Amino acid sequence: MFTENFTLKLRRISGFSARSLLLVLTSSILAACVASQPNNITNVCSIFEDRRGWFRAAKSSEDRWGIPIEVNMAFIYQESSFKARAKPERTRVLWVLPGPRPSSAYGYAQALDSTWNEYQSTSGNGGASRADFDDAIDFVAWYNANSRRISNISTFDARNLYFAYHEGNGGYQRGTHRNKQWLIDAANRVQSNSERFASQLSSCRRDLEKNWFQRLLS
User: Fold this and answer.
1) What CATH architecture does domain 37-217 belong to?
2) Are 165 and 67 in contact (CB under 8 A)?
3) pLDDT digits (tens, 9 = 90+) for 56-97
4) What 3 state SS string does 115-173 have?
5) pLDDT for 143-176, tens place per residue?
6) 94 or 54: whose pLDDT is higher?
7) How many CA atoms, within 13 angstroms, populate the side-chain half-sphere of residue 83?
8) Whole-number Cα distances in Å, 148 to 66, 155, 169, 197
9) pLDDT tens sequence across 121-134
10) What are the helix (H) ranges across the chain?
11) Domain residues of the chain, as ranges?
12) Cα angle at 210 between 81 and 124, to 5 degrees?
């Protein structure tokens, strides 16, 4: 009887340990699937050389929504510096204690819960994750395509597209951005980075568009 009880307990412990180990391994694998920040985030060619899959996702979003790669990449650079799990800094209580975050913004694109839910329901990408680059850049391109349609903003006008991205198209049309100098400065950086990325991309896009066999022959 003692031996049977001991064996049963051992089996339970072993089963628990196996489940725990499986949970740890699964968590580790999922964490590894979230891409680390690229080494050189100021050069779009370097980013795409490090992350060939990112270029394919960026090009797919450009083809689908009609917004240039450099514009969408400049948005993500501004919003998260290409960090998958970026969040706004917490507010401070009595200047010391950590308080709540100012918004639900999360991920590469710093998308809000409500806007991300709208993207999931209208884009056909219902299982999208804000910590997945492919989904995030498609979200940015989708939002900018809406701003082009709703507010008649040029696809190359990263500055005004960013105003609409931050304020919403209703806020943009009301001009809520005009008295926010910090937002004007941010939008100017987005425009500058978009132009820089466009220049960089012109020198490497042909090579990035080659498949593995074409790269092997070149």
Assistant:
1) Orthogonal Bundle (1.10)
2) no
3) 999 999 999 999 999 999 999 999 999 999 987 655 555 555
4) HHHHHHHHHCCCCCCCCCHHHHHHHHHHHHHHHHHHHCCCCCCHHHHHHHHHHHHHHHH
5) 999 999 999 999 999 999 999 999 999 999 999 9
6) 54
7) 11
8) 10, 7, 10, 20
9) 999 999 999 999 99
10) 2-33, 44-50, 52-65, 69-80, 113-123, 133-151, 158-174, 181-208, 212-217
11) 1-33, 37-217
12) 60
Helix axes 181-208, 158-174, angle to 10 degrees: 140
**Integer Cα distance of 69 and 24 in angstroms:** 37
Compute the mean pLDDT over every residue in the chain, rounded to the nearest whole number.
85
81 Cβ neighbours under 8 A, 6+ residues apart: 37, 41
pTM summary value = 0.81
Place of tokens 């980075």: 193
98: left (phi over 0), alpha (psi -120 to 50) or beta: beta
Q: Any residues with CB less than 8 A from the CB of 188 and at least 6 apart, and which?
A: 159
What's the pLDDT score for residue 36?
87
Cα distance between the two ends of the chain: 73
